[in-house]
Task: structure prediction
Amino acid sequence: MKIKYIQHTKDVSQYSELSLLKRSDKTDVVFVGYGLFILSMVLISYLLGVLGWLPFTADDMDMDLMMALPGTGSHILGTDFLGRDMLTRLILGIQAYFLPGLLAIVVALGLGTFMGVLSGYRGGYAETVITYINNVTDSLPRLVLILLVVAAFKPDIYIIMFVVGLTNAPAVASLVKDKITFLKQKNFLEASVALGLSTRTIIFKHILWYNCRTLLIIQATLGMAEAILIETSLSYLGFGVQEPTPSWGNMIQAGANYMMRGDFWPSTAPALAILLTVLGFHLLGDGLNNILEGKRRK
Amino acid sequence: MKVSAIKPITFVLVKEIGMTVLLLFGVSIIAFLIILASPGDPFAQLYGGLSGSEAERKALYESLGIPTTWYGQYFSWLGNVLQGDLGNSIRSGRPVLAEVVSAGINTLYLTLGALIVTLAVAAPIAIYTAIRDNTRLTISFNLFAYMISAIPVFWLGYLGIYLSTHLFGFFPLGLGSSDSGNIAKFLLPIFILGMGSGLISEVVRHMREQVSRVMNEEYIRTARAKGAAVWKHAFKEGFLIPVTEIMAIKMPFIIGGAIIIEQVFNWPGMGRMAWQAAQDRDFPVILGITLAAAILVRLSSLLHKIVFVSVNPRASHL
Result:
């Protein structure tokens, strides 16, 4: 470590002995902090939903208390247009995103990494083919493609999220490829080949684990945000999770019918939940990107 | 004519147009295969419903003159498409091409208008935050861009309708309604699509990177040192190229947002048609829309390449 410090005077911060927290931008730390808070809230809500530790039953209608504002009676976040407890439905709404979103992320990262390594490390013929596939998926607006799949198969949310993952894979692939192209200029890859390390070790350990993991984590957080927004759009169009199973998308959609009467709360509450959650994932991704990948490092 | 007499830009353009055609070919294969893989056979009734055997199916297809292999069916479909015959809508019975074109023009108004709104909001933020580094205003601009992108666009649409009816006393309508004289009413959907749909934060981020990169270039320092207008020198690389690049990259996202916004405001465009077609499993229409959307995306990408090559002479060398 010390030797490097003396040899390279150009990019000092890379070898700075200050802790990561101290040398990174304060705004980024706040962003990441907020993102981690949202991430833990999402995890807690998911667990609460799975364990069934909820303040009310999701379908319990309170006919005397419809569209109640937050803090009315025992309903902490009020009720929706059928008098169902808002907090309970918001917590259960996470379930519509959590596993499907994870599926989209796993597909996107798995396939994307595979394609990225193939085109970046092997190059040549594979690179041309993958660039072509990348450009073809870029030419298809995602929502149009999903509507095409909906028209053909009438699929459930898991298959839709699988398609979302497939369409996200080329973007991940091009990021991984760029990273590998950048790494190839460095000496350590050449050295590890010369040392006789197996290709598998080089790819999995030295390229993916040591050098691509932050990039992949960042893509995963952004992918979750996207899965939430896509499910919301699909719920609005009527192809997402169906009532009475709550998802934030169909809650906004159903509540929006009452907005014209001035009853904002039933659709605003889930809209706020989406806003805060998506914001959290975006800020987490961008903050981590700035801190770990050093985009804004001075 | 000698080869050297042709301008290098022509070579690049021919290459790009060839690439566009090749990509559209790929899109058409994917779209066709998805539809082909869908369950059900339109001719099942004619050969004994679900109990019909594979041999019976083949015999029927041959007697009707339909290719039995998937590539045979693809090429016969592609041949029709290239002659401008996209089939008839199963719902309305009218030719798909005419319907998609008339709806596509309405969508074009919406998407291009929305792009202008997005750029009008995002470009000043991007340039300001690129030139000034971390001030309090920069952070709040950034946060605004993040937050507006995280709101579901249709909720923003409903909020817009509510505000316009209750505050300004008019109900925003889709294009082509009887009251089409008042253009102000059409601006709301365009404005909402431009603000929402997750574009602003990405445009701000992309442009900020480009602008701050250009501002650190040496020719900008030279321009500043000799007292020339910095803006004039930075315009091509710092503004024109990023803007067209954003148009090219973000076109698919804007079309996706347009599907939602057309639904909210009853805008008679491609998005509403796609939604209807997905409801009805109207395959010719949804295939037509997929192709039209891909063509829109590719054309905006082509435009970006043309601008890039014509303002950047280095790029025209093969």
